[in-house]
Every structure is written in structure tokens, then in C-alpha cells.
Amino acid sequence: MSVITKKALAQSLKDLMQTRPLCKITVQNIVDACGLNRQTFYYHFGDVYELLGWIFENEAAQAITQGNDAGDWEEKLLKMFRYLKENRAFCQNTLHSVGREQLERFLSMQMFAFFLRNLAEQFAKAGIGQADQEFIAYFFADAFSGMLLRWVSSPMNETPEQMLRRTRAVFESSLPAVLQRYRALAAKGEDTPASSPL
Q: Is the distance from CB of 10 to CB of 59 less than 8 angstroms?
């Protein structure tokens, strides 16, 4: 029942964000829209921004990862693009509000986990240590998160499939050079940090 209630509150917030700025939405607006009361809202969430964070951490993350094989990185990215496109008004509203941090954190952590997981085999073959694996994953995650945020803030004229093709071209052309460089550093015996500086 708790999850059902949270989903109802989440859907109310998303619906309201279709037509009004996040800063203009109150807890009362949210509970009125789904037939609940303020006490129920505060039982689950401290404020509107906590609910916003829950949407990204649960609903959005689940929509992207559900039924996805860790090795199928293209499918994972395509789901990410599709979620952002299908929830355009919600994401753009978040991006242009004080809730921007929630969207930025969500994209950054999703992309970091994605790169770390999907590059694990290639990292192992290249003999890249854990600290360097995390550094590379963060590097790509920050670059791709920035690209996603720019797309969300635009009219989003490109389709998810077009975004995937562009992403694939950049990723597949740059990754081999990165792996080759790290192999060369390892062959020279150059030290790398014991832990990620990020």
C-alpha cells in the first residue's frame, strides 16, 4: 500500500508539472489532485522536493533498467533517451527550478553506474585498476550527463534513436583510445592513485 500511495503522489506531481512551475506547486495541490490528505503526504515525504527525488530514484530508474541486460548498453541508453523525451515537460520543469539538482544527480549516477558496469569486461582485459575504472566512468558519465541536460533544455527535436546514433559514434570512437592510453601507462609502470579523486 505504501508504494501505491507514493506512486499516486508522484503521478499527481508529474501531472501538475505539465502546466505549472515546480515552485508554484504545494503539498496541498498534490494531495488534492489524487484524493489524499496532507497527513498521508508527510507520512511518506518531508516536502515536495523529497517526492521529486523519489520519482527520479525509483520510477525513472526502474523505467530505464527494467528488463535490461547489463551487457546491452545501447538498449539502456535508448531507454534513458525515451524516458526523458516521454517525460519532457516534467524533466524540463525540474531543470528550470531549484529541483535541478535532483535531475542532475539522477543522470550523473545513472550514467556512472552504466559505464562502470558495461565497461567492466573491457577494463579487466586492459588491466585497468579500480581507481582508474572509476575515473574513466566518471569522466564519461559527466560528459554524457551534460549532453543529456543540454538536450532536455532544448526543444528536443532529435528522436531518442537519433540521440543513440550520435552517442554511439562518439563513445565507440573515443573508448578504444582511452583504453589504449591506459594500457600504455600500465606498461610504463606509471603510478595511478589508490582511490578515485572524484
A: yes
